[in-house]
């Protein structure tokens, strides 16, 4: 054990000597390893950070949450011209399904509406995301309140002119004033503020939650009717926990087909979008990003490996006389082989550590600049170090073998 520690110490010394004596050549050779490790760990860290953020943003929703509407969240075999003819879901269908479908925890009706300007006295907040919905939405989305509340069933059904503000909307409109009970203008109408949500921060789709306002959907139904082309209606369904999703979707599909009078053989003119399917698509994209990162880094690591191999061949040539002396004094082939192998590994690990430090610095800068938490995990640090050592092992094996097989007499003579 002691001899291996001594070997590692000597190899580390030789590696540092190579850096000192041939600074430019060694640094250029290490650049390939540094860029390779930087590329793969940077990509993996970015993907891990994105994955962590997505899971955090979607944690408020049950993965079995269903969005029932005329559009599909993913790829579909239904041609576009046919999808364009699908009718929108109706409020009456929401009421029917809520009464008739089993195993439903909560069911809400909502509009995907356009952005609007909202005003309070002389202040205006532009491009606010408006989410008209029924009272059940609060429990499906698990909204967290800073102050106030969501509208209740009676207020929802009657279409009361009440509104709940996202954190940033309330902050920009009222600037320190208590918003509860104040009147704001939206759609040319006055709404009473009854609640303000806690700050959520940037999500995968931007800061939507903080710049969204919620109002009773029946108010807009009364104002514009049910045929407003600028808004897309949807039925949001949260099944009971542990339900058989295939059976649940089957029942939901059967009830809506019967209500719409679809005959056997006719395609569904609606889509049952389950949130888990959306997350599967995101997981697939994340996996593809990982693969692309590995491919990009692979070329850099290949170049870095050749650079380290070149350094080691030069090192063997420069130290041929020393190798001959060591062997003449009784050093075994294994000792010489491990000495050069350790040196190659140490050089690669140095390059890898530089790459990891660069990734760490960039994650700190981006986290502070973009209000998005980039994470350099412990496992990615371990992966970068192990990968650098493995490249050193591959790059140093042939030079190390050639050094270990040198004839001691010829090696000493070559240095004279």
TrEMBL record:
Keyword Transmembrane on entry: yes
Q: Where is the MacB-like periplasmic core domain?
A: 26-254
- Identify the residues that the record assigns to the ABC3 transporter permease C-terminal domain, covering every copy: 295-408
Q: Which UniProt keywords apply?
A: Cell membrane, Membrane, Transmembrane, Transmembrane helix
GO cellular component: a single term: plasma membrane
The transmembrane residues are 27-47, 291-314, 335-362, 374-398
Q: Example GO molecular function term?
A: transmembrane transporter activity
Q: Which domain of life is it from?
A: Bacteria
Alphabetical list of InterPro entries matching this protein: ABC3_permease_C (IPR003838), MacB_PCD (IPR025857), Macrolide_Exporter_MacB (IPR050250)
- How does the protein associate with the membrane? Multi-pass membrane protein
Pfam families hit by this protein: FtsX, MacB_PCD
**What are the subcellular locations of this protein?**
Cell membrane
The entry sums up its family as follows: Belongs to the ABC-4 integral membrane protein family.
- Protein's UniProt name: Putative ABC transport system permease protein
Protein species of origin: Flavobacterium terrae
């Amino acid at each position: 054990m002691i001899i291996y520690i001594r070997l590692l110490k000597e190899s580390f010394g030789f590696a540092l000597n190579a850096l000192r004596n041939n600074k430019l050549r060694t640094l250029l050779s290490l650049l390939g390893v540094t860029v390779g490790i930087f590329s793969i760990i940077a990509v993996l860290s970015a993907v891990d950070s994105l994955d962590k953020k997505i899971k955090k943003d979607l944690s408020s929703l049950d993965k079995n949450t269903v969005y029932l509407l005329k559009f599909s969240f993913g790829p579909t075999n239904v041609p576009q011209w046919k999808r364009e003819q699908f009718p929108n879901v109706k409020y009456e269908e929401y009421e029917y399904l809520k009464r008739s479908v089993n195993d439903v925890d909560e069911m809400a009706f909502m509009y995907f509406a356009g952005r609007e300007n909202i005003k309070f006295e002389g202040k205006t907040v532009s491009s606010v995301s408006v989410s008209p919905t029924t009272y059940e939405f609060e429990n499906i989305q698990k909204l967290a309140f800073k102050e106030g509340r969501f509208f209740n069933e009676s207020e929802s059904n009657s279409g009361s002119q009440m509104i709940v503000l996202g954190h940033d909307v309330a902050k920009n409109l009222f600037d320190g004033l208590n918003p509860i009970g104040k009147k704001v203008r939206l759609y040319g109408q006055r709404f009473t503020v009854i609640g303000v949500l806690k700050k959520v921060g940037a999500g995968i789709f931007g800061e939507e939650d903080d710049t969204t306002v919620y109002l009773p959907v029946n108010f807009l139904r009364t104002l514009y009717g049910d045929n407003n082309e600028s808004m897309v209606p949807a039925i949001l369904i949260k099944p009971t926990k542990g339900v058989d999703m295939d059976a649940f979707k089957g029942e939901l599909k059967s009830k809506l087909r019967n209500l719409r009078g679809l005959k056997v053989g006719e395609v569904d003119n609606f889509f049952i979008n389950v949130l888990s399917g959306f997350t599967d698509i995101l997981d697939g994209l994340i996996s593809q990003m990982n693969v692309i990162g590995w491919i990009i880094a692979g070329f850099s690591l290949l170049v870095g490996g050749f650079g380290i191999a070149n350094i080691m061949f030069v090192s063997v040539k420069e130290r041929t006389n020393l190798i001959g002396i060591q062997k003449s004094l009784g050093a075994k082939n294994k000792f010489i082989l491990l000495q050069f192998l350790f040196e190659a590994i140490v050089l690669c690990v140095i390059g890898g550590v530089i790459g990891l430090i660069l990734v760490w610095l960039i994650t700190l800068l981006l986290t502070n600049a973009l209000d998005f938490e980039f994470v350099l995990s412990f496992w990615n640090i371990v992966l970068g170090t192990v990968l650098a050592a493995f490249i050193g092992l591959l790059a140093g094996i042939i030079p190390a073998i050639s050094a270990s097989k040198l004839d001691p007499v010829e090696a000493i003579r070559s240095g004279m």
